[in-house]
């Protein structure tokens, strides 16, 4: 818990003043005002603002000894822990910028991004050190690590780089978005949609390589509040909600898909929140209304924005039942402007759909080492001050009566899957690298259980097992970019103009089990029969074999939570997400259930 009656922080800074200061200076203001306030905690571990300040200030000179200086990238490969903010602050105090790597990424992905960014130092921990070149590694929890005495921070400008975040790329190569201190400060301090108090507790659950972590990490630390780090590993919606309640969290951010599941399964556990923020994809109006009705006094916020404009561009707070058929994306946050423009870059009339362009302090500098890609979307702003820029988001929107914006689709093929931005071309190029694949198209389909999923269609002169294709993609792409289904076609459908008919493929559904190289093994007994039917319903395919791996069948984390929720309710147990990941076949799961229930519930009720 935080210290009783948290010490009030320094006088609040207006957004414009905050954006003129680098992040270490903004953090130092909070240290000076309330050094004993708890800055970070995870379970029994906690760091006060003074301790977080001291540890990061002593790690920074070690980084400088390793050659880190102005805007030099430092990779951070660290699990969720109290060590994470220490590492990030140290990089910034040394004058560098951080490149967050997700431990869940395949090794090939991490290696490629390290090379692209030119990061020669990697901050990591003992459990992950084997994945890092020893010459580059600084192992934070190494008992032999000796930190020098603290020294003065490097001089950093607000327009210096704070971090590099990679997004999916249309060329097949990820793009490194270069984000400045000014952009982060504009998001975290006086942003206009959060009223942050010293007694607030923010929950950190998003992967640090995902730009939502910018809000989770820096908003509390630059406002004198507390950062509560989620327990390690995947959490089911119920586990997540219980952790939120146990940590007395007041501000929570969730992807759209996870928001929907938590609202359906564990809404009561969120009653202590002040703000429930969701985004990354289109929100269900019925779930927003359910959250507002079931959480009196809690403000539900729909947050919209691309990584290139530092997490959020617009936000829409909801405190009463919606009066619109969709959830608006709201109005620009402080320090940001939006323009809805036509093809000639002139403003469209209110109420008409236009291409959404973002302006202001949140704009990234551009894409690392990709000047052509930068010039294509970071444009001179013809309606702003001389020299000002705007970012073409690729999204369409229109102004609603009252001034809020409504999302109206995309100009290109980019899609959101479980909150992650996906360029289908990147997945297609990865498929085409398989020597037996002659053609590939990846589309987004509506998932019958909500949200969207990726579906891959390919041509080949050979019978390529889907399991082989999936394994090939898993070795180089993040899980969010691996399609849920694969279908081999004799030829790809074409439009009258001779182009691939993606609309036909997007509307096509398949319920056939993918080729895993083996025939499906039939269930043995009522328990396995029940699990087979449950998996078939959740995955939307059949037949399902009792030795089929859930994830090789196209399952993902959100679908896994549906399995754990159903099983937990049926057997009156708490099936943890981690346990399901350790038993990803029906045979293994049935054996586990028999063990934990003593065999007393061999046949599910109903």
Number of strands: 26
* Overall pLDDT confidence: 91
- Give the end-to-end Cα distance, rounded to a whole number of Å: 43 Å
CATH topology of the domain at 19-191: Rossmann fold
CATH secondary-structure class of the domain at 19-191: Alpha Beta
Strand order in the largest sheet = 6-5-3-4-7-8-18
Summarize the biggest pleated sheet. Answer: 7 strands, mixed
Q: How would you describe the shape?
A: globular
Helical content class: 25-40%
> Given the structure, what is the number of helices?
18
Low-confidence stretches: 1-5
Query: In CATH terms, what is the architecture of the domain at 19-191?
Result: 3-Layer(aba) Sandwich
Structural class: alpha/beta
CATH evolutionary superfamily of the domain at 19-191: ANL, N-terminal domain
Strand content: 15-25%
- Over all CA atoms, what is the radius of gyration? 24 Å
GO cellular component, one term: cytoplasm
Protein name: Carrier domain-containing protein
Organism: Actinokineospora globicatena
Pfam family, one: PP-binding
Write the layout of secondary structure elements.
Elements: H1 15-18, H2 23-33, E1 38-42, E2 45-48, H3 49-65, E3 73-77, H4 83-93, E4 97-100, H5 107-117, E5 122-124, E6 137-139, E7 161-167, E8 175-180, H6 181-188, E9 201-204, H7 212-221, E10 226-229, H8 237-246, E11 251-255, H9 256-265, E12 275-279, H10 285-294, E13 299-304, E14 314-318, E15 331-332, E16 336-341, E17 354-360, E18 366-367, H11 371-377, E19 378-380, E20 389-399, E21 405-410, E22 415-417, E23 420-422, H12 424-432, E24 437-446, E25 452-460, H13 466-474, E26 485-488, H14 502-507, H15 526-539, H16 557-571, H17 577-582, H18 586-596
Parallel strand pairs: 1-10, 3-4, 3-5, 4-7, 5-6, 9-10, 11-12, 12-13, 25-26
Antiparallel strand pairs: 1-2, 7-8, 8-18, 13-14, 14-15, 16-17, 17-20, 19-20, 20-21, 22-23, 24-25
């Amino acid at each position: 818990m935080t210290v009783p009656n948290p010490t009030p922080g320094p006088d609040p800074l207006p957004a414009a003043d905050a954006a003129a200061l680098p992040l270490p200076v903004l953090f130092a203001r909070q240290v000076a005002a309330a050094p004993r306030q708890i800055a970070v905690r995870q379970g029994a571990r906690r760091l006060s603002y003074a301790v977080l300040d001291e540890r990061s200030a002593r790690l920074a000179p070690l980084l400088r000894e390793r050659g880190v200086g102005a805007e030099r990238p430092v990779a951070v490969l660290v699990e969720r822990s109290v060590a994470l903010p220490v590492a990030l602050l140290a990089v910034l105090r040394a004058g560098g910028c951080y490149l967050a790597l997700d431990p869940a990424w395949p090794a090939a992905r991490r290696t490629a991004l390290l090379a692209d960014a030119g990061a020669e130092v990697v901050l990591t921990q003992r459990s992950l050190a084997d994945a890092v070149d020893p010459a580059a590694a600084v192992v934070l929890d190494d008992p032999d690590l000796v930190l020098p005495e603290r020294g003065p921070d490097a001089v950093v400008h607000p327009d210096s780089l704070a971090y590099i975040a990679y997004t999916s790329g249309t060329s097949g190569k990820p793009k490194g978005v270069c984000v400045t201190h000014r952009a982060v400060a504009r998001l975290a301090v006086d942003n206009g949609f959060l009223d942050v108090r010293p007694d607030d507790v923010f929950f950190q659950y998003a992967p640090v390589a995902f730009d939502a972590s910018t809000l989770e990490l820096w908003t509390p630390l630059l406002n004198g509040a507390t950062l509560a780090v989620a327990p390690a590993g995947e959490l089911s919606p119920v586990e997540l909600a219980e952790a939120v309640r146990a940590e007395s969290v007041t501000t929570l951010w969730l992807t759209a898909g996870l928001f929907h599941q938590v609202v359906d399964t564990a809404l009561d556990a969120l009653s202590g929140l002040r703000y429930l923020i969701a985004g990354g994809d289109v929100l269900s109006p019925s779930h927003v209304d359910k959250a507002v009705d079931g959480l009196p006094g809690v403000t539900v916020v729909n947050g919209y924005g691309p990584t290139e404009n530092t997490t959020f561009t617009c936000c829409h707070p909801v405190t009463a039942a919606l009066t619109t058929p969709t959830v608006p994306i709201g109005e620009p946050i402080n320090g940001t402007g939006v323009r809805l423009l036509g093809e000639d870059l002139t403003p469209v009339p209110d109420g008409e759909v236009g291409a959404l362009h973002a302006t202001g302090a949140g704009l990234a500098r551009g894409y690392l080492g990709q000047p052509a890609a930068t010039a294509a979307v970071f444009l001179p702003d013809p309606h702003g001050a001389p020299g000002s820029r705007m970012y073409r988001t690729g999204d369409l929107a229109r102004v609603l009566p009252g001034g809020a914006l409504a999302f109206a689709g995309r100009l290109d093929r980019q899609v959101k899957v479980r909150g992650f931005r996906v360029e289908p071309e990147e997945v297609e190029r990865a498929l085409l690298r398989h020597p037996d694949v002659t053609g590939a198209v990846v589309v987004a389909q509506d998932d019958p259980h909500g949200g969207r999923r990726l579906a891959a269609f390919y041509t080949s002169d050979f019978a390529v097992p889907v399991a082989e294709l999936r394994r090939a993609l898993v070795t180089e792409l993040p899980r969010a970019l691996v399609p849920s289904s694969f279908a081999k076609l004799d030829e790809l459908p074409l439009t009258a103009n001779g182009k691939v008919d993606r609309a036909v493929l997007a509307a096509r559904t398949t319920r056939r089990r993918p080729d895993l190289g083996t025939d499906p093994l039939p269930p043995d007994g009522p328990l396995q029969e029940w699990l087979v039917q449950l998996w078939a319903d959740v995955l939307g395919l059949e037949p399902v074999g009792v030795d089929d791996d859930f994830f090789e069948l196209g399952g993902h984390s959100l679908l896994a939570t549906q399995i754990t929720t159903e099983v937990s309710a049926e057997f009156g147990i708490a099936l943890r997400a981690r346990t399901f990941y350790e038993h990803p076949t029906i045979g293994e799961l049935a054996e586990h259930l028999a063990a934990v229930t003593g065999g007393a519930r061999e046949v599910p009720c109903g």
